[in-house]
Specification:
Blueprint: H1 6-9, H2 17-22, H3 31-60, H4 68-104, H5 119-124, H6 132-145
Helix pairs in contact: 3-4
Amino acid sequence: MATKTAAAVKKIRELSDEEIRKAPEKDYMNEAQLAYFKKQLVELRDQLLQNADDTGEHLRENEVTTDPSDRATLEEEYTLELRTRDRERKLLKKIEKSLRMIDDGSYGWCEETGEPIGVARLIARPTATLSLEAQERRERVQKLYGD
C-alpha cells in the first residue's frame, strides 16, 4: 500500500453555506464542497446516535406510577419517542449511504438522470439522491399509482 503524500494529506479549507452557494458551476462537488457535506452528514449522524442513546437511557428509567392516566400518558410519550427514533434510524441509513457516495465520488449527482442535484437542495437536504425534477416526477407517479 502506498504511503500518503503531503498533497493527499493537505487540509481542505472549510467553506460556509454562502461560499458553497456562490461557487461557480465548474467547481460543483469539488474537494472542499465534498468535505463540507461530509462534515454536515457526520455531525447529523452523531446527533442522531446521541438521541438514540438518550432514548435508551430514558426508556430504562422505570417510572412507577399507580394512576392509570399517568401510566397511559407515559406509554404515549414512549410510543412517540420510539416512533421518532424509528424515523431517525431510517435517516441514519440515508446518511450512511450519502457518506459512501461521497467516498465513491457519486455524491451530488441524481441517481436517475445523472444531472447535478444542486448545492441549494443538498444544503437543505444533504441526503438527497434525486434532483428536484426527478423527485417531483417520482412523487407524481407515487400519487397516481401508489407505492
